[in-house]
Amino acid sequence: MLPTKLVECVPNFSEGRDTAKMEKILDCFRGKAGVKLLDYSHDTDHNRMVVTIAGQPEPVRDTMIQAIGTAVQLIDLNHHTGEHPRMGAADVVPFIPISHMTMDEAITLSREVGQEVARQFDLPVYLYESAATAPHRVNLAEVRKGEFEGLAEKMENPLWKPDFGPDKPHPTAGASIIGARHFLIAYNINLHTDRLDIAKAIAKRIRHSSGGLRYCKALGVALTSQSMVQVSINLTDFSRTSLYQVFEMVRMEAGRYGVEIANSELIGMIPLQALADTAAYYLRFEALSIDKVLEYKIWE
């Protein structure tokens, strides 16, 4: 009997306020054979919902096509505002190989989904990260630069012709960015201040593109509903840039402005090893691995 292939998908939808719309999108993932809805979270300030699913490649592919179509139908970016950058209704759709599956297979899966949603929904699609068709399309921030409002002008440049679909934005759903990548940790640190300039300055100090931590992406955003600001972080390789390194650097930089960390939050899922590494650092264990976690050993 062949081992079961498993792939994770973490679609980001540009809706975090309208419960009815979010529920209709989430219904695409519920009760599907071969697909498990692992987690979802949404935020009114970001106006965004992040969903985590995992399952066998074919059911995950079919489910994502349905979910993207539902988002295209429901979300109108002409009336969308939020702190998080976005280009599309189904903004970003990464596929992550989990077990018995190669990155090349995840890339193929992302291309199948991209081609099909472009055909069915007349939706421009850009491939990114490991699925990118050109070096300038690897980085998500570069692909999304200009966001929905600048998309029509951007697409006039031959360098930004979409990989699939029409050469002009979908009138309400923009364009989707679909690809394959390794696991990342989406992690936010909230600060006891409403000064956005401080969050942006800290984000600039810690992110790799500005000379900070190698596997860290970050931006500063305002949490208007909470009268706080946030350093929003993506860790693209937690084994090389750890969760505790990021936390300590943010705390140190915030201290320069006389600001304390209020709390932090996880968006989506996190590997157990990342938590074990963090516990080992703060508790000063000489060695701690997930093999020492009782539940892990029982269920492995």
What does this structure look like?
This protein has 300 residues and is of the alpha+beta class. The chain folds into two domains: 6-180, 2-Layer Sandwich (Formiminotransferase-cyclodeaminase, Chain B, domain 1); 185-269, 2-Layer Sandwich (Alpha-Beta Plaits). It has helices spanning 19-27, 57-74, 103-121, 140-144, 151-154, 196-206, 243-256, 272-283, 294-299; strands at residues 6-9, 12-13, 35-43, 48-55, 90-99, 125-129, 176-180, 185-191, 216-223, 228-235, 261-267. Strands 1, 2, 3, 4, 5, 6 and 7 form a seven-stranded mixed β-sheet that branches. Strands 9-10-8-11 form a four-stranded antiparallel β-sheet. Helix 1 runs antiparallel to helix 2 (57-74), helix 2 runs parallel beside helix 3 and helix 6 (196-206) crosses helix 7 (243-256).
